Each structure stands twice: as C-alpha cells, then as structure tokens.
Amino acid sequence: MKSFSFLPHRNCWRVASADRFGVIIDAAQYFRALRESLERAEDLIILVGWDFDFEIEMLPGESDEDGNAPDGLPNQIGPFLEALVDRRPKLEIYLLKWSGGVLIAPGRALPTAQIKLLSPEQVHLGFDGRHPIGACHHQKIVSIDDSLAFCGGIDVTDGRWDTRDHTPGDERRKLKSGEIAQPWHDVTTVISGEAAAEFSNLCRKRWQRAQDEELEEPFRPGRDRWPESVQVDFTDIDIAIARTEPPEHDRPSVAEIESLYLDSIAAAEDCIYLESQYFAADGITNAIRDRLQEEDGPEVVVINPKAAQEMVEDAAMHVTRSRMIRDLEEADIYDRFRILYPRNADEEPIYVHAKVSIIDDRFLRVGSSNIDRRSMGFDTECDVALLADDERDRDKVRATRDNLIAEHLGCQPEEVAEAIERQGGVIAALDALEQPSGRGLRPIRPRKESLMGRVLADTRFFDPRYRRSAQARLGVTSRHVMIGAAVVAAGLFLWSRQRRR
Could you give the count of Cα atoms lying within 13 Å of 352 in the half-sphere of its Cβ? Predict the structure, then answer.
C-alpha cells in the first residue's frame, strides 16, 4: 500500500488506541456477542441505530417454553432490556432511533410505543430527527459502560439474523409475517480500550444533539465487557473513527468517510476489496476508474446484492449501478474489475448489507456507510478503520478478507489464501475456486433501463447529496416534520371523537 495515514478533520474524526478489536461476520454471531456484553453492563448502555425491533429474538430457535434464552433471560430484545434494568437498578439504557423508521415500518410503532411509555424508568427511548428533510440517521453503534463498543452495519431489527451458511429455508429466519427472510450477509466490529471510550463520547454527543439534553451518567471507561464468543483479531492498534453528517444551521457538513474512501483507494497497490449494499457513488466509482486505467494499478473486487428488496428501490439504485458498471468495464482495459453477488446452496441470492473496505493487506474499514451519495454527504454515518503496520496485523487483515471470500464461496479461508498465492491474485483465485452451480459468487450484469428506473436514476431521487440550497429551509428538519405530523394526527383524532358526540 502506498503512503497513507489517518488525518483527523480530513478522513477521520479521531484516532485512538484499541486494546482489542474483533470483526464479527453475520448477525447470528453479532446478536450472541451483543447479548453477552449487554448482560455484563453495570451503569450505562447506549444503542444508536437506524431501526430497532423490540420483538425479535436475539437467539432464534433457542427459547424455552417461557420465551427465555439459555441464559434464563427473555429472548426478545425488548423484554431482555427490561430484565437487565430489573436486575441492576443502577443501570441506565438509552435507545436512539431514527424518527423516520416509524414511517418505513409502521408495524413496529406499537412495540416502540410500549418501550417508550411502559418500560421501567431506566429505559430511555429517543427519536433522532435532526436532519435535513429526506436524510436519515444511519449509524449502528452500541456503547457499554464507556468501555466496549460495537460499530458496523448490523441493525438490531427484523430480517437481519442469519448464519455464515445462509442455509436455504432456515426457519430461524422466519419473520413475523410467517415468511422466511432472504439470506442476509452483514458485518460489524467490537472494540475495547481508549477507542471504545471515544465511541461512548460520540454516542453521548449524538443523544444530546437529538434530544437537547446531556446524559447525566458519569464517564467511567476501562472496564472489561468483552464478549466471550468473539475472538480478538487485533490488539493494541490505533483505530480511526470516521463520520458523515449533513450540515445544520449551526455547523458545516462532515464528509470524513468519503475522504477515507478516496484516500485509501488512491493508496492501493494490489487489491481493493469492497462489500456494500449499493454501488452508486460517483466520487468513489470515478476514483476506481482512474485506478483501473493505470497499467500497474490494483485489482478491484466489489461484492453487492443482486437486487434490492423493493422494486422502486431497485429501480432507483441499480439502474445507476448499471451505468457505473458499464463505465468501469469500458475503462477496465487490463481486466482487473469484478462486481459479484453471492448465492447460497439453492442458488438463492444472498442480500449483501455489509459495508467493508479492505485495501491490500494493510487497510480495513467497517461501518454503516454504503457506496452511495447519501452515505457520502446526506445521512449520518459512522465507520471504523485500522492500518496494519507489522506482519502479524497484516496477516490478520489478509485473513479477514479471505474469510469473507470463503463465506461467499462456501469453502475454507485456507483454500482462498492458497488459491490467491497459487494464482497470483484475488480475481484469478475467484475464477479458480468458482463452482458451476450451488454456493458461490456470480457476475452482476448491467440492466436495461425502464422508464421509471431512468427517471429515478437521472433525478437521484432516493440517492441525493446535500446541496447548499437546502440552507434556505431555515432550519426545518425531519424532526419538525415528525412533530408536525404528530400534531396533525392528534388533531384529526380529537376532531373525529368530537364528531361522534
């Protein structure tokens, strides 16, 4: 990897040391690890997320007849949190959820209201709507006792749980509708040490920004909350925390994540490996195109879902992706670009929700940001990254990449490492390991454009980037829209009752 460094106020917010750092692949492992660490909390838990579903089981298929998990506590996340504060009266739990989630998933409004109104007083539910209209709070962070943090792409909500095997028809993926959810691939991280304390500071600031009040709990980092089920991948390593935040009336925008992408892509020598829900950010794809046109540039492997889960979203995002694929394939005169989607044993497409960058064997980034314009300059995002300087840590970065590829191919990480060594590159190894049917990675082909897809792609209606003209909104945010909607709804309710009299 060429010269690269973390630069606060450019490509990151802060750099801090992590005494332990682990990569967690897929939500089955994450929910188990999260539960273990939450059980160890004594004073303060902060969960910051795009969405929460308080009715999901953290360990599907492991409940007894009373609905308890093997640890004796309720398996559902809402009752589980209530049980924690019943057991520890000094424990305070803060849940910060994007306000727009009520509109996207109205079926979760009642359980959310129950948490808000009926939970013990130590459980505090807040809604984050302090964004320009149309933007969302998209960070996925958990802070426990100022001493442990999870940061990545996994929401604590319905449809996320899955195992590494992405087993066809797995009953544990059953939704409340009775349907079996699509196989789902995701990634997050767990961090302890000084870096975890910085995540706590970030969560506290986020709560204060959204709720206009500070958390009163004292700041007490340095305690051991590491989950036993997660192996430690890195020790005593510097961690960079990078953000995207849209501007508000009293502060400018933050685009550290975009700079982190661009700086790391520019520094790549051998391989750029990306996993993302989308592939639609002009700045990122332009940077990749420039590297593909270099005679000695790096390979580029992008793992994406085959399609979005909703028709309109698919038309909006993946027509743009098709245009960018065509542009990159035209620029790829040295045949170093692949964009692929994973399939399970029944050849069912696995939905890729992970947000990962691995550059050569030195740079690793995991977070909430997608490769789209929203994540570069409209929504609120948070990523974590590290640079491997010694041979041990470089081996770990390589092992993380090989582990991800092995999951997608349904083989062992050792097989991937051997194939890369034998074939002399990642793309050649992928070609050598690919099977004609069953589990594996398949190419994503550019699509023909429908009229709706063309209009949505041209306007970038669902994938905007903040524009300075939005300053003219005089500070009107999603928060004001939600308050206004609540007032209107209450007024209509009272009016309808009055008419019945």
Answer: 27
Residue 469, SS3 per DSSP: helix
What residue spans define the domains of the chain?
14-238, 256-453
Angle at 101 between CA 100 and CA 102, to 5 degrees: 90
C-alpha 373/C-alpha 275 separation (Å) is 16
User: 17: Cβ–Cβ under 8 A, 6 or more apart, which residues?
Assistant: 193, 194, 195, 236, 237, 238, 239
- Cα separation, 200 vs 204, in Å, equals 6
CATH architecture under which domain 256-453 falls: 2-Layer Sandwich (3.30)
Residue 172 DSSP code? G
Residue 342 and residue 349: Cα distance in Å, rounded? 6
CA–CA gap between residue 199 and residue 450 (Å, rounded): 43
- The DSSP secondary structure of 410-465, one letter per residue, reads TS-HHHHHHHHHHHTSHHHHHHHH--SSSSEEEEPPPPPPPHHHHHHHHHTTTS--
Tens place of pLDDT per residue across the chain (501 aa): 888 999 999 999 999 999 999 999 999 999 999 999 999 999 999 999 998 898 999 999 999 999 999 999 999 999 999 999 999 999 999 999 988 765 555 555 555 555 555 568 899 998 888 778 878 889 999 999 999 999 999 999 999 999 999 999 999 999 988 999 999 999 999 999 999 999 999 999 999 988 999 999 999 999 999 999 999 999 999 999 999 998 877 778 899 999 999 999 999 999 999 999 999 999 999 999 999 999 999 999 999 999 988 888 888 788 899 999 999 999 999 999 999 999 999 999 999 999 999 999 999 999 999 999 999 998 999 999 999 999 999 999 999 999 999 999 999 999 999 999 999 999 999 999 998 899 999 999 998 888 887 887 777 776 777 665 444 344 555 554 444 444 444 444 444 444 444
Integer Cα distance of 377 and 31 in angstroms: 30
Q: Are 1 and 359 in contact (CB under 8 A)?
A: yes
- Angular region, 436: left φ>0, alpha ψ -120 to 50, beta rest: alpha
What is the third-level CATH fold of 14-238?
Answer: Endonuclease; Chain A (3.30.870)
Give 206's Cβ-side CA count (13 Å radius): 33
Q: Which residue has the tokens 């050598």?
A: 432
Q: Cα separation of 234 and 146, whole Å?
A: 20
**Kind and range of the H or E element at 387?**
strand 381-387
The reply to whether 256-453 shares the fold of 14-238 is yes
Report how far residue 77's alpha carbon sits from residue 57's, in angstroms, rounded to the nearest whole number.
6
Distance CA 417, CA 424 (A): 10
Helix (H) or strand (E) holding 489: helix 478-500
